[in-house]
Here is the input.
Amino acid sequence: MKLLFDNNLSSKLPKLLADVFPDSIHVVEIGMRNFEDIEIWKYAKEKSLTIVSKDKDFYYLNSAFGSPPKFISLVPGNCRLRIL
Here is the structure.
């Protein structure tokens, strides 16, 4: 499974998880830092990527348009970004 990490997650995650999820990327790596969620969603669909985000907007996009792309919603609760 190839993951696409959203802006609200660390850009270090693809490298940290490369042994488990090779070829995963962060939106910053592909020049999509300030893109709208719908554009990120379309890109993930086109490239067969699974979106990983804390943003509920991707849940709503998948509810409206269906899957693919798949979406993993992280709900970390109250914790520091370093811990997450």
Remarks:
- Residues 4 and 77 are 21 Å apart (CA to CA).
- The mean pLDDT is 91.
